[in-house]
Design a protein that fits this description.
Layout: E1 2-6, H1 10-22, E2 27-32, H2 44-49, H3 63-68, E3 72-75, E4 77-83, E5 88-93, E6 99-103, E7 106-109, E8 113-115, E9 128-129, H4 134-146, E10 151-154, H5 158-169, E11 174-178, H6 189-202, E12 205-208, E13 212-216, E14 223-226, E15 230-232, E16 235-238, E17 242-244, E18 275-277, E19 284-285, E20 292-293, H7 298-312, E21 326-330, E22 333-339, H8 342-347, E23 352-360, E24 371-379, E25 385-392, H9 396-408, H10 413-418, H11 433-440
Parallel strand pairs: 1-2, 1-7, 2-3, 7-18, 9-16, 10-11, 10-16, 11-12
Antiparallel strand pairs: 4-5, 5-6, 8-17, 13-14, 14-15, 19-20, 21-22, 22-25, 23-24, 24-25
Helix pairs in contact: 1-7
């Protein structure tokens, strides 16, 4: 059995490793267009800021470890096309420009996604950066070490906010541009507003409903031009989103979403025979919505790769628990979400209600208590929990995991209110904020 895996990060290497553990006799080849495999992209902002000063700590498992496990790992080899009928992949060796074909019995597409650059003038000026790979982080870190002046962030999502914190940590003056009316669009406005106000208090100059129209400079960035003004900036970090890296599949007839994400079923099978896909280039079936959605998160990518490997080895494993559970740190705040948002419920005409409370993260008489705001979304008729969002002090983010568990178990808010959550003065109150939010829903 010959398995070809295209892409050597979370999903691809998880699949390859699982296959070699289960079926060491299988021939597993991984094609990776860069020189990096299996690294922690979520740690990039913390490397840039110096919180983690060691680049090598970002590398979870190195190429030689995969080679030792029997994986034929080919770095700097890019897949440029797939012939699904002939079951071959066209490959370009980026070091010598040699092109060859590689046959497969089963193909795994795990090509991830690339950072989007907006189609505006000057976007390729020196001083304009994205943050998706280790080389991206290395280049940005070097530029920040020698650069002076304000740094502009374009985009108010996860990477934009994490980079705002990183730049504040480095003592930089930060301008943050978001063309929509608020930051963190996949959160409810009530939660996003708290994060936004906190960043403003920390000194971030936030510009909402202001789109960047061009970048100007004499070879190097000097100004960011928006539809409302011009701003001096020595550097810019563009974080407006990502696009699945699937253009090489355009002539295969494979089914994709409009953004290019490959549509898969719960076994991560694509519409092509013997072809699987996972990670940031693929869709998952959302547990609450029951729809094929694109959720580019590392936790999901690792699970999908492992499950693909098990399925290929004859042990079918369905991925049915995708909830988009995510958390970020925004300066002194922890922020987390799971399930669906109010906007997603409205868009699908799901009858819902919301319960939102703010309470201390632990007993008020124990030093250092902080406030947490919990927002629960539940079905109006069945009272089943549909989503949860939290923001606040220590413990806010990890409580999101409890809510993901409750949604997976299809618990009602009444059952959440009855949960026997642990209590000790340094960690929680006798009634945890989650119990309180659920009880308010009664």
């Amino acid at each position: 059995m010959r398995i070809v895996v295209i892409g050597g990060d979370a999903a691809g290497m998880s699949a390859a490793s699982k296959i070699k553990r289960e079926k060491p006799e299988y021939d597993v080849t991984v094609l990776e267009r860069t020189g990096e495999v299996s690294y922690g992209a979520c740690g990039l902002p913390y490397y840039v800021s110096g919180v983690n000063p060691v680049e090598d700590k970002l590398r979870i498992r190195k190429p030689e470890a995969f080679a030792k496990a029997g994986v034929d790992l080919r770095l700097y080899h890019e897949a440029t096309g797939v012939d699904a009928d002939a079951k071959t992949v066209t490959v370009r060796n980026l070091k010598d420009d040699r092109v060859y074909t590689l046959s497969y019995d089963t193909l795994v597409i795990a090509t991830g996604a690339d950072a989007i650059l907006p189609p505006v003038d000057g976007v390729h000026l020196a001083g304009i950066h994205t943050l998706k790979t280790i080389p991206d982080a290395r280049a940005l870190k070097e530029a920040l070490t020698h650069g002076e002046g304000a740094v502009a962030i374009v985009g108010g999502g996860y990477i934009g906010l994490e980079m705002a914190e990183a730049l504040l940590h480095l003592g930089k003056r930060v301008l943050l541009f978001e063309r929509e009316e608020r930051l963190l669009l996949n959160f409810d406005s009530e939660i996003a507003r708290i994060a936004q106000d906190h960043l403003a208090e920390k000194g971030v100059d936030i510009h909402l409903k202001e789109g960047v129209t061009r970048f100007e400079g004499d070879g190097t960035l000097q100004q960011v031009i928006t539809d409302r003004g011009a701003y001096d900036a020595a550097l810019a970090v563009v974080a407006v989103g990502i696009k699945p890296n699937t253009a090489f599949l355009k002539n295969t007839g494979i089914r994709t979403l409009r953004n290019g994400a490959v549509v898969t079923d719960t076994l991560m099978r694509t519409s092509l025979d013997s072809v699987y896909a996972g990670g940031d280039c693929a869709t998952v079936r959302h547990m609450v919505l029951g729809e094929d959605v694109h959720i580019p998160l590392g936790t999901g990518a690792n699970k999908q790769g492992r499950y693909i490997g098990e399925t290929i080895c004859g042990k079918p494993r369905h991925y049915t628990t995708a909830l988009g559970t995510a958390m970020i740190k925004v300066c002194d705040l922890e922020v987390g979400r799971t399930g669906i948002s109010e906007a997603e419920a409205k868009a699908r005409a799901i009858p819902y209600r919301v319960s939102q409370v703010t309470a201390a993260n632990h007993a008020g008489y124990y030093p250092g208590h902080e406030m947490i705001t919990a927002r629960l979304l539940y079905h109006r008729d069945t009272r089943v929990l549909l989503g949860a969002q939290l923001i606040g002090g220590a413990g806010a983010a990890l409580r999101t995991g409890t809510m993901a568990t409750a949604i997976t178990a299809r618990m009602t808010v009444d059952q959440v209110g009855e949960l026997d959550l642990g209590y000790a003065p340094p960690f929680s109150a006798a009634w945890d904020v989650l119990n309180i939010a659920a009880n308010v829903a009664e």
